[in-house]
Amino acid sequence: MKAATKRIAVGAVATALIAGLAGCTGSEAPRTPATHEEGAPGAKKGAAAPKSAVRLIGDGSTAFTGVQPGLLKPERLKPGQQPPQFVVFSWDGAGEDSQKLFSHFRNVARKYDATMTFFLSGVYLLPEEKATMYDPPQHSAGRSDIGFNDTQGIKDTVRELRAAWQEGNEVGTHFNGHFCGKAGGVGKWSVAEWKSEISQAKSFVKNWKTNAGLEAEQPLPFNYDTELIGARTPCLEGRTNFVRAASELGFRYDTSGVNDQIWPKKDLGLWDLSLQMVPVPGRAFETLSMDYNFMVNQSGTVKGDPSQHAYWGNQMRDGLVRAFNRAYKGNRAPLIIGNHFESWNGGTYMRAIEETIATVCVKRDVKCVSFRQLADWLDAQDPDVLERMRALKVGQAPADGWEAYLATQPEAAAPPPAVKRAQQR
């Protein structure tokens, strides 16, 4: 797993610097939630699910264990009610290796009453000796740009996935081989090829016990066929055909594109919860809300000048907090943040993310949630109310307050003042 992680980091940086990608990963039917009487307006925290019998699925790699605990109860906004401020922290290529960042950020999430989305790379549950079981589109069987895993790495990753789900977090997918660029990269894949990749990602999760010879281990406590409702594509490539495939397979959201900080809309039936453009303090442009993109704009390498590490981490943290504040005090659009379990530039981005979580998740009316929970809340809202909120531009609060703005049925909104958008690099 560690070796695979290193290959990912180097390959992703090379790809972005050569191709100038907007963003790149560097590693890689909704359930009814339980209810509770606390939480921000329109988003109530779920109580622990009642214990139920475990029913194994297939070879016992996954199981039915009842309603997931720790979810929010999505409630429709009342007329004139201010929406809560949602923040989503998400992780690409989630797996536990020697850095132990998966387990660390699980603890961080619990500390700040947050839930997150972990996008699992399916090959992290496939041992190296079984590599040829993976037949990637436009590549030979057994090929992966992020390698595979070993038995201990699979055990550790499954342990974290199991606990994460039981704590209310979501397990999505970052697919498998992490192929980027022109030579067979995901940006060239057809709808049928995306469906094959998704099917294989599910298979590796549903059969990890047999594939890794770990029959005595405890199962993952969910049915992945219903748990998997969203994804982020490698290097943010191939989104068009992926969304077409995902819409036909019953997915509910995608987070592979580039958006501004405005309220989301649907694309082919999927919520477009893409990464967003956020400030880079001290620079005359904005960048994507992902650790990788800050790194590329700062050092262009995973091992930049050590004397700049603290500054770069502070710059990312302050940029994300600025983005949060302009939404929190403005249009209340959900803030979408993407990360990797990596120690680029001395781990400064991991510190930045942890400090961002500690700063924003404790504020009034703020809910740090998974993509699943955000999609649940959006689906519970009046579409006309969401459309009214979408009319608010980046950082724009309703001129006469939320009570007046959402008191009646939406009507044509007056053109808001222009918001200057800095050039992205």
UniProtKB/TrEMBL annotation:
Protein's UniProt name: Lipoprotein
Record InterPro entries: CE4, Glyco_hydro/deAcase_b/a-brl
Example of a GO biological process term: carbohydrate metabolic process
Coiled-coil annotated spans: none
Keyword terms, alphabetized: Signal
Entries under SUPFAM superfamilies matching the protein: Glycoside hydrolase/deacetylase
Chain spans, region Disordered: 29-48, 406-425
Source organism, top-level taxon: Bacteria
The organism's taxonomic lineage, starting at the top: Bacteria, Bacillati, Actinomycetota, Actinomycetes, Kitasatosporales
Native source organism of the sequence: Streptomyces lunaelactis
